[in-house]
Amino acid sequence: MAWTRDQMCERAALELEDGFYVNLGIGMPTLVANYIPDSMNVTFQSENGMLGMGAFPLDNEVDADLINAGKQTITELPESVYFDSATSFAMIRGGHIDLSILGALQVAQNGDLANWMIPGKMVKGMGGAMDLVAGVRRVIVLMDHNAKDGSPKLLKQCDLPLTGAGVVDTVITDLGLFEIKGGQLYLSELAPETTLDEVRERTEAEFVQ
Fold it and tell me: Which of 12, 19, 21, 193 is buried most deeply by CB count within 10 Å?
């Protein structure tokens, strides 16, 4: 039985440490915040200029002026601070963010990442993804193991435009957790009731245990 999306996010939350500054990508990665223990102090950064984000608001708490980089409404904390984009990206490019959790279209076995466009489809732009994978100390990708058409997303080589080359450290999919070290992909953890044969069948990339 593969991990559900909630279970994937819960597993990703185990990679966080007390005192970390963390950037969560849009989509599924934002759910990771739901699984951080109350005893752990983690500060979330949004590249549109906010440090210290609260939970998603209830209907009666929505403030249209408070949004994250994915244009979702959020809440502030007593310690929240705001700054311009130049300061935000200086924070990212300067290596001051410990961890970023992003979604992906494709990841290659050497850590190459493609997560911002499919040629021929309209896109709004890359956003902060290129800066995040280049400046953040560790990059975790959270994604379904296969695309909707069943094609693998863990590949020998990406065929979509790259966001960054050799930038991914860890990949968590519905089938397991993979680590990339020295350009080699390692399967470190299998999802419950998932077999090694199933992972091999659904993966193009070469990996070792």
Answer: 12
